[in-house]
């Protein structure tokens, strides 16, 4: 058998009858073809028993578009899923299986792939550029706000009366002010999350994460996966792998940590990674640690807050020593939720760390800047002017702010009760699964109105963003599920300053979380969403 192209752009295929079904099936599966009648039946030789089939290549217009992933041939989808699952296993897009008891403690036990989207969602190039350009500005904003102790204390004063967790954090901040503790070396590994609002065609910020920003490691792997899939299947799908931007967030995070370690200037000091006792997402964390070890020759040690309390001390020169080892940096991948402080031991460890000369990532001030209340305060009129003089920078930041309100605003509360579908109610919490929506939002507001307590200070109201929903193929536990979804785009950033010298202030990669459009929460590990990348349009 064989094939050749005609002078009119058609392909001719000929083969013996015994092979007809095999070659036709192969052509159909791999090339998207149209079978037509041969132009001259007399050309067929009965003696040779050949069959001519005219095959016309289909142009990209008939390929599944970015918004029509559900139209992809089912056999092709199954093959891509198989290849993707192999890739995730070989390259470490993994998490501990929650059904396996030791999967959060012992590496290599009970592994399962992280839930992921098979193909990346579309995102406008212009808004992508906007998010990347905002990263250094938000870095500077966090740093400047963190230095304004009065602003932090006053903004959070009412919240602390009803939120014990924020109160304990602010108490540590107050103790550092009392002893005039100076943080000359300031390191931030941040992530600013956005959604593209369909109605306003605007990029709007969801939140600024200043502690334990996750998925810098596995976010790079999902990007590699999507680029790999599109390099193999992109032509038949009408997609270009180069439209998925490269991602080196793990390397950028490690580089910032390494530069901070150098600024500390103690070659024998280690980096402590503060972790939860049970951490199914440990592999995301190990990517950064591995790069620090292999490229920068820096040792990292994983410790819980309880272990730091038991093994740690502050030496006379201010050095933090844990289990006899000097600590240059304390990198928090835990400590962002009340569940991480089950006893006084954890709070003692947090205070011990803040009292030491070790670089904190983040320090207590950076942590507080990431609270929802501070985000809401920064969105108030004339507040950004307290921290920036450049009007263009102020305009860029304010342009991406969604509506944010205190529950002290009675008019907004009334509107939220009447139209709860237009709002989200947020507590001072990180980690996903804490927001309040719809009828629950209305009931909570009515309950607070009828209460004499100040519990309303524990929450803020935020404009609900309605992003474009698209078709997606989601893969969880080896099974695929087709759904309509929305996506949240996170831009990682790194910031390092030693006294007045800014050493690092960069956009540093990205991650995307995608969830069914009917789901309110989007956390990947809690089971709401999947990890994703992006296809720039």
Automatic annotation (TrEMBL):
Residues annotated for substrate binding in this entry: 191, 285, 513
Spans through the membrane: 12-34
Entry cofactors: Mg(2+)
Enzyme class: ligase
Pathway the protein takes part in: Sulfur metabolism; glutathione biosynthesis; glutathione from L-cysteine and L-glutamate: step 2/2
Cofactor note (record): Binds 1 Mg(2+) ion per subunit.
UniProt organism field: Pisum sativum (Garden pea)
Protein name: Glutathione synthetase, chloroplastic
